[in-house]
Design a protein that fits this description.
The complex is a heterodimer. Chain A is of the alpha/beta class. Chain A has two domains: 255 residues, Type I PLP-dependent aspartate aminotransferase-like (Major domain) (Aspartate Aminotransferase, domain 2, 3-Layer(aba) Sandwich); 124 residues, Aspartate Aminotransferase, domain 1, CATH 3.90.1150.10. In chain A, the strands form three sheets. Chain A has a seven-stranded mixed sheet with strand order 1-7-6-5-4-2-3, with helices on both faces. In chain A, strands 10-12-11 form a three-stranded antiparallel sheet, with helices on one face. Chain A has a two-stranded antiparallel sheet with strand order 8-9. Chain B is built from 13 helices and 15 strands. Chain B is globular, with a radius of gyration of 25 Å. Classes of the chains: A alpha/beta, B alpha/beta.
Chain lengths: 486, 448
């Protein structure tokens, strides 16, 4: 087991340094005289005083306390922890991509602009939309952008009074938070017995205040909504628009497209569906695609091609404005672009087929040991419940997950979606082999057995991790969010 | 296919275990009318060496700062990135991990975030900082949301010296919430006009936002602006260049309630504008209204110090429509890089890099000022960016200098019509005296 590491501040020794700067080669002047009227810093910030060796060892040791996808299985539902191809990292680091200033100008950015323009086109084709922007930096940022576009559009057609956004009870938390950030009020509609949107409940909410519905399809149960075309018709007839949350797009490639399902606005998570790394929580990228009538409202600038040169178009009077300083997390987009070029059309369809096959295989084997609340073919993920174990011996989903850590694997997403008690949301992805899936099945079988024979062992897990279970109450009651020098 | 381990034999065996006749059977629930009945129209797949050649060819068309000498700034800066930063960022255990929701196997990420939060708090002179936001502009917009949630007001006074992109993003972010903006003018010296700012602040003003140094490179009088904001109960928000804080008085010592900004100068590549890093720091009394993730200290059941995501009831995955923000993914790996950069620069290095930026920028400015027809646009004290009225259109200067393999200056007219004819240069520690002298020589030639 890897040992815990002191804080970098605790490694500090006055006078020790890790920086390397050339000697100043211009005539040195007194900083105070160069900054008349400005106050200089009297107290230096307490940054560490360490050598480069200290810094490198510190971070390498910290890294060894982490579980990463490159170590073993990481079946977090709705997060699509698929393998991150190494060529993508090398390409995004090419000096011609990584070391280009955003204001280099059109002539100096033709390669970048072409890449972004082509990427927009790929995403339009994959999503069935008419135009994409790459500016949003993450999925939730894409949601914000998309809902701002809907708001601007509705206002432009004299429907600015529409203030209600419909969100299914199975939705990600970002959906209601996004709607509220855009000034909307939200209403929740329940799911039906087959896990889809309850059409009667939806109908009851339809009136002339509906601005939009935000839907994830396949939804967070991993199920394709069998009525998605009916929902689209109902919302459109009520004068609302449809927003597609692309978090689960790994279950769709080459099989169904949000544009064909009737969605007006959508986002993709490049860090999920298109293989870019999650980075411990980011950077992601959340490009937004729209149907033709919404194109004027896309953020500025858009990337355009006049048949000869690629250029940035800022002259878009109806645009919602900017959502990020520059043009998006384009370094992330370059990785996803490389991935799409490598996979091609047949490859992407195979990605979804294998993702769905892997999920159904796990589901078929695991439902022998764990409650499966919605028993029908799933798409890229499925949701089990730990209720049998809870009732049998008081072992909860949290315990099962913590015990999974002792077997060197990452647990699934827990307690989400909210509509399943003791939920375990499992998404294997297409990049896992049958052998890995079988190993995971064995682990969950073993934990189920332990839950009956020795429940306290499961409740006390994990044992084989750098730290044991944490006291989150202390952390919240009296937050300590920074180190302070004694 | 190299990322898809299933063989046809595996697929057959798995279908048998499932009890399905074909893979297509697994997709039977997709309504017929929404099903794609053709293959996607995408380029033919490429092998790794073809990818390298093809995308490498696109990359070769761009003007990068290794081949060109960069004097461009305006929110993104060409600082030197120590080799150790990219080595640390490239650790698979960091970049292939998810958000640290399972702290028992995420102590590396959680501790590095806690250290980053500390370094940002130290640099800005604030009590606490979060784990990161998308970029400097969105972080500033989140500062407005924090201010509005704190004092329930809907008016924002923002200096004309704030980067135009930041203003634009702030307006987009708050567009659905009925916020009005007043822009505080700048004086001839380039600083925000304190008296006129004070006139714009009312009892309805949620916050006052300034940039430090401002968009034109000029150092703002933070104390006076803070006093003006606080006198009417508004929060004082400072968008600061973190490198400049190695030398300049920390905003936290000047009355700032929130300090945020663009973290790209802290060891992140220019990458044509992203991914960058929004950093966000505030006073302790606002920490429960702060958006984004926070790593805090706790103990485990073995009695060890450990780190965990804290105050999660602010966040969307718990609080849904009542969350402080919808932010979920942030820029974690960029924050890791910035943490490594700040650790490497250390207490002395951060001051030294700031000083070299200051010295070299002033040398360049003094040399350019000797050229005929070049007049400094503002007289105020500047850090590492400065503006000249030029004898030749800035856009033309930029085009001509490119022929000398020099990038810059930025044409301020692209942002505001009233600033057309003004050219802005940025100088970092990376520029050598020889490169600056070449710039000056080239300017003399192309402005004749």
């Amino acid at each position: 087991m890897n040992k815990l590491e002191p804080l970098i501040f605790e490694l500090s020794s006055p006078g020790r340094t890790a920086f390397s700067l050339p000697a100043l080669d211009v005539p040195a002047q007194d900083p105070a005289s160069l900054l008349p009227g400005a106050e200089l810093r009297a107290v230096a910030p307490e940054l560490p005083e360490v050598s480069e060796v200290d810094v490198v060892r510190h971070y390498v040791r910290l890294s060894r306390l982490n579980h990463g996808l490159d170590i073993d299985f990481y079946p977090l539902g709705s997060c699509t922890m698929k393998y991150n191809p190494k060529i993508n990292e090398e390409i995004a680091a090419l000096p011609g991509l990584a070391h280009v200033h955003p204001y280099v100008g059109q002539a100096g950015a033709q390669g970048w602009l072409r890449l972004l323009y082509e990427m927009q086109g790929f995403l339009c084709e994959i999503g069935g939309m008419d135009k994409f922007t790459l500016e949003p930096a993450a999925g939730a940022h894409g949601e914000f952008t998309g809902m701002a576009i809907i708001r601007a559009y509705l206002k432009s057609i004299g429907q600015g009074h529409r203030n209600k956004v419909i969100i299914p009870d199975s939705a990600h938390g970002t959906n209601p938070a996004t709607a509220v950030m855009n000034g909307y009020t939200t209403v929740e509609v329940k799911s039906d017995a087959r896990g889809g949107v309850d059409l009667e409940a939806l109908k009851a909410e339809l009136d002339d205040t509906v601005a939009a519905i935000m839907l994830t399809n396949p939804n967070t149960l991993g199920l394709a909504d069998e009525n998605v075309h009916v929902i689209a018709k109902m919302i459109h007839e009520a004068g609302g628009l449809l927003y597609y949350d692309g978090a689960n797009a790994n279950g769709t490639l080459g099989w169904m497209r949000p544009g064909d399902m009737g969605f007006d606005v959508m986002h993709f998570n490049l860090h999920k569906t298109f293989s870019t790394p999650h980075g411990g929580g980011g950077p992601g990228s959340g490009p937004v695609g729209v149907k033709k009538r919404l194109i004027p409202f896309l953020p500025v600038p858009t990337v355009e091609f006049d048949g000869d040169k690629y250029y940035l178009d800022y002259d878009r009077p109806e645009s919602i404005g900017k959502v990020l300083s520059f043009f998006g997390n384009v370094g992330v987009a370059a990785k996803a672009y490389t991935y799409i070029l490598e996979m091609g059309a047949a490859g992407l369809k195979q990605v979804t087929e294998d993702a769905v096959l892997n999920a159904n295989y796990l589901m078929a084997e695991l439902k022998k040991y764990y409650l499966l609340p919605y028993d029908r073919y799933c798409k890229h993920e499925f949701v089990l419940s730990g209720n049998w174990q809870k009732q049998r011996s008081g072992v909860r989903t949290l315990d099962i997950s913590k015990r999974t850590l002792d077997f060197g694997m990452h647990p699934p997403t827990n307690y989400f979606p909210l509509i399943v008690d003791e939920a375990m949301m499992i998404e294997p992805t297409e990049t896992e082999s049958r052998e890995t899936l079988d190993r995971y099945i064995e682990v969950l079988k073993e934990i189920d057995r332990e839950a009956t024979e020795n429940p306290d062992k499961v409740k006390g897990a994990p044992y084989d991790t750098p730290v044991g279970r944490l006291d989150e109450t202390i952390a919240n009651r009296k937050p300590n969010l920074r180190w302070t020098k004694e | 296919m190299r990322y898809l381990p299933n063989t046809d034999r595996d697929r057959k065996a798995m279908l048998e275990a499932i009890g399905a006749k074909s893979v297509a059977e697994l997709f039977a629930d997709i309504p017929e009318q929404t099903r794609l009945k053709r293959e996607l129209d995408l380029p033919a797949p490429m092998a790794e060496q073809q990818l390298r050649a093809y995308v490498g060819g696109l990359a070769a068309q761009n003007w990068n700062v290794n081949d060109y000498t960069c004097f461009l700034g305006a929110g993104a800066y060409d600082h030197y990135i120590p080799a150790a930063v990219s080595q640390i960022m490239s650790r698979n255990e960091f970049y292939t991990a998810y958000t640290p929701y399972q702290p028992e196997v995420s102590q590396g990420t959680l501790q590095s975030i806690y250290e980053y939060q500390t370094m940002i708090a130290e640099l800005t002179g604030m009590d606490v900082a979060n784990a990161s936001m998308y970029d400097g502009a969105s972080a500033t917009a989140e500062a407005i949301l924090l201010a509005m949630a704190t004092n329930r007001r809907h008016h924002v006074v923002i200096s004309h010296g704030v980067q135009p992109n930041v203003l634009n993003v702030c307006k987009t972010y708050t567009g659905g919430q009925g916020v009005t903006f007043s822009e505080a003018p700048i004086k001839a010296c380039g600083t925000t006009d304190v008296a006129k700012t004070a006139e714009l602040i009312t009892n309805e003003t949620a916050c006052v936002i300034v940039q430090y140094p401002n968009f034109f490179g000029v150092v703002e009088p933070l104390d006076e602006l803070a006093a003006a904001a606080h006198s009417k109960g508004a929060l004082f928000v400072v968008n600061a260049n973190p490198i400049a804080l190695g030398l300049l008085k920390a905003p936290g010592q000047c009355g700032a309630d929130v300090v945020c900004g663009e973290g790209q100068p802290l060891g992140l590549p220019l990458s044509f504008g992203g991914p960058y890093l929004g950093y966000f720091a505030c006073l302790e009394k606002f920490q429960r209204r702060m958006a984004g993730r926070l790593s805090g200290v706790t103990v485990d059941n073995r009695g060890q110090r450990a780190f965990v995501l804290t105050l999660q009831t602010r966040e969307q995955h718990i609080r849904r429509e009542k969350a402080t923000s919808n932010i979920c993914s942030n820029q974690a790996l960029c924050a890791l890089a910035a943490g490594a950069y700040m650790a490497l620069m250390g207490k002395q290095g951060i001051r030294e890099v700031a000083n070299q930026c200051l010295q070299k920028a002033h040398y360049a400015q003094q040399q350019i000022a000797k050229l005929p027809g070049f007049e400094p646009a503002f007289g105020g004290a500047f850090f590492n960016e400065f503006v000249f009225k030029t004898p030749v259109e800035p856009a033309k200067l930029q085009a001509e200098l490119a022929k000398h393999k020099i990038l810059g200056p930025i044409d301020l007219g692209r942002f505001y019509p009233e600033f057309s004819g003004l050219a802005m240069f940025a100088v970092t520690e990376k520029r050598t005296k020889a490169e600056i002298d070449s710039l000056v020589a080239a300017l003399e030639v192309v402005s004749k």
